[in-house]
Design brief:
The protein is mainly alpha-helical. The protein is built from 3 helices and no strands. Residues 1-40 are annotated as: Disordered. Residues 50-87 form the Ribbon-helix-helix protein CopG domain.
Length: 89
Amino acid sequence: MSVQPEDRTTIDMFSSSGPGRPRSNPYDRTQQSRLNKRSQRLRDKHAGLHRLEVKLPAHVVAALDDAADELGLSRAEVITKALEQWLHI
């Protein structure tokens, strides 16, 4: 019988218990990150969001952060509102 990384029932069948804190998640850190990222992408997709990467000069990002702090919003929310206003959406 082999142990599959995604198999939650036999994950500790062949491992020896050692000192330290017990594992709260049967997956190792790389698999946890991969699964979390996948679920985040699915949440964004169901919410109708699209990923967009933009490179901006440092002074623009600083001004964006200042505006976000003043408005109590995130960077993405400030950019979205600015683009909606500029595009008259």
